Amino acid sequence: MTTTSASPSLVSTLSGEFYTDPEIFAAEQERIFEAMWFCVARAAELDKPGSFRTCQVGRESVLVSRARDGSVKAFLNICRHRGARLCTQESGEVKRAFQCPYHAWTYGLDGKLVAAPNLTSMPDVDRVAFGLVKVHVREWLGYVWVCLADDPPSFEEDVIGVVAERLGDAEAIGNYGIDGLRLGRRITYDVQANWKLIIENFMECYHCATIHPELTEVLPEFADGFAAQYYVGHGAEFGEEAQGFTVDGSEGLDRIPTVAEGQDRRYYAMTVRPQVFINLVPDHVIFHRMYPMAADRTVVECDWLYLPHVVDSGADVGRSVELFHRVNQQDFDACERTQPGMESRAYIKGGVLVPSEHHIGAFHTWLQTRLGA
Ligand code: FES
Ligand code: FE
Q: Which tens digit of pLDDT belongs to each residue from 144-195?
């Protein structure tokens, strides 16, 4: 696990093995995805007691569900009897309890073991001790975040604080009222590329002029390659011609009323390590979560969120969805074109970071520190 320097003024990237080696991926699962706060679901998906969602976090399957008291609970999705996967669906709803499909051990919405065939003949099975294994859970911005660590890092510092720092203002994110917005569209992308290629792509705009014609039309400053999507804390200004953040620059939908005047006609973007990207524009919010599945496969779930009355009215969100959907496709195509190169002997020593990509170098340093390399 080494990097090399190409020349004094240019910085080299990670070597190819970082994007292909299953052992490095396993270390990332353990030391990053299972150790940090990980965003798993939109809280509104869990709209009633018994609604649930499952997803892969590091090497574990996690079950998040709405309990009877309205709170969100998170558990390891593993039956305590003989270890079968409890919920096999990605999402759904149970009436009162989760029942294991193997021998029918049954768990309440609070995770407690409530029934099992012949349970009365097994007095030493403690129903709490043999309940589902709990996972730390938080709700913020209308999303459910979990942490598998026994002793989780500070959510305030690692998530809320990072967003505030990116925007240069602790209050700014609140202006978008993200928890009160409604899902207008969700698109899930199954990307055949390592999660770091996706993050690195998101962190630089050197590629914007080449692959994002629609985006650079709306955000002309992206065409010069220096805007970093990773951290557009100043807000990229819409081009004079653009009336809204839409695929053809036409007018957007109703503006979020609490967006400040200085945030109007501007695009903000940020990465919250390790797997969330947030884009803010005056009339909607685009919220990406990455689910790293293998060294060469990442599922990306992208939500477009609008004011509730906009979604309820059946207004056409298509033109605003289409803009970033195209950006996503253009970016993920680029990542998939790059993935095979990571195995090539041409990339054994890695590649080069140009000056406008310097913050990718900071990401690599962060990654290697976390991996203890
Ligand atoms: Fe779940 Fe036996 S493994 S009930
Ligand atoms: Fe891009």
A: 999 999 999 999 999 999 998 888 887 889 999 999 999 999 999 999 999 9
Could you tell which of 81, 87, 113, 119 is best to mutate to test the pocket of ligand 1, judged by most ligand atoms within 8 Å of the CB? 81
288-336 pLDDT per residue, tens: 999 999 999 999 999 999 999 999 999 999 999 999 999 999 999 999 9
- Nearest bound ligand to CA 335? 2
CATH numbers and ranges of domains, the chain? 37-147 (2.102.10.10), 155-371 (3.90.380.10)
Q: Which residues surround ligand 2, an ion (CB under 5 A)?
A: 331
The terminus-to-terminus CA distance of the chain in angstroms comes to 7
Q: Quick one: which atom of ligand 1 is closest to the CA of 79?
A: 1
Confidence (pTM): 0.94
Q: Of the bound ligands, which one is closest to the alpha carbon of residue 225?
A: 2
Ligand 1 site, residue 88, Cβ cutoff 6 A: no
